[in-house]
UniProtKB/TrEMBL annotation:
This is Transporter. The keyword Magnesium does not apply. The lineage of its organism: Bacteria, Bacillati, Actinomycetota, Actinomycetes, Kitasatosporales. It is found in: Cell membrane. Residues 242-253 have a biased composition (Low complexity). Residues 230-253 are annotated as: Disordered. The chain crosses the membrane at residues 52-76, 82-103, 115-138, 204-225, 263-287, 299-318, 330-348, 354-379, 391-414, 426-445. It comes from the Bacteria. GO terms for molecular function: transmembrane transporter activity. InterPro entries: MFS (IPR011701), MFS_dom (IPR020846), MFS_trans_sf (IPR036259). Its main location: membrane. It is a multi-pass membrane protein. The keyword Transmembrane helix applies. GO terms for cellular component: plasma membrane.
Amino acid sequence: MILFLASRPVTAPPVRPAAAARRAPRRRLPRFPRFRPLAPYRRLFSLPGTRAFTAANLLARLPMGMLSVSAVLMIAGTRGSYALAGAVTATGLAATALIGPLTARLVDRHGQARIAVPATALAVLGSLSLLLCVHYDAPTWTLFASYAATATTPNTGGMSRARWAHLFHDDPAALHTANSFEQAADELCFMLGPVLATLLCTGLFPEAGTAVAAAFLLTGVLLFASQRRTEPPVSPTPGSPSGPCGLSASPARSRSPLRLPGLPPLLLTFLFTGAVFGSLEVVTIAYADDHGVRSTAGAMLALQAAGSCAAGLLYGLLRPPHGPGRRSRRFRLCVGAMATLMPLPLLAARTGSLTALTCALLLAGMATAPTMVTGMGLIQSRTPAAQLNEGMTLAVTALLTGIAAGSAAGGWAVDHLSGPAPGLGLAYAVPAAAAALALTIALLTTRPTGTDA
């Protein structure tokens, strides 16, 4: 009997309908994917160390929008000469154009922390020397020498972009978002820096802006350099001898990025893009002054930078172009959009309405950040990883040179076009012409090259 019972199959007891209903899984309605516009940016900062180096770099980058304005206000406020202040800052700009790429080359060869800290310390000493020379009424030539010493300031934005390129070298979408964030950060620093410098120099004392900017720069670079786990590794040259302190003494690492195919036309486009920025600033200040509201010029330029910042963040949500042909095509489209929108301030200024001009500046600024993001992406794809800082610093140098040339051209237009209506409104033809030249160069020369990644 026991064997008979054991041989029978064991069956589960019948389940009551109520119990079965309780155990049956509920049918879920299909859920639509939620719109998460900030998801790409959250993904960037989910990596360990990215938040720390970004915060430190923003602190170090803020002085780039403060130093020149602080120097102008400090020198003009104590020496009573805007011409002298402009000459001193122009000398520093020229020195930066010469020294900046050399500093970036050292950063590429020996690492960010090893070069950026002493270079920043030398630049801070130059700022403090300028402050003391102005305060104690030193000879005029000391102002030029002191401000020229600040040219060793490392390209903090380029070093941050190099870290993103190292972290996301195999993820084009994330790298595109990171480049968009970096361009928006540049615009934010250029928007807040002059305002902060003006408040410090006019609210406290003339030297306050330079002192605070120097403190921000040194503190930010020290904090940024301490984040070693996100620092891109140095690619040593095989067989290169070592000099003092272990630094390579061989100058023949590789050819200059200026000799890379496709890079000089990009730099020329950046030059005319910088001319857009420089002329737009000078003409806007002069136009506001001509209408008796010079104090609002800063707010008008801040709105232009805000439009560019917002456009940069939104551009980072788009899919990056895949392939060298599409990258070059996207760049030409962005430069074309900038050239299309830049005549808007010219049309608005001729109406005599400051409200219309402010809105036109806001719209015109929305094309600059996508142009810069796409251009920087092309430079990254055409520059070897071991020379990335140098390549991006050359782009910044081209921008600074263009800004200086654009400022001079805008000032010339203001001096020669002042008078009855339309008067200064015609001076907005200078940034419009610079944008058109940038588009012409991009259309004629920007083509896919063998170095595009």
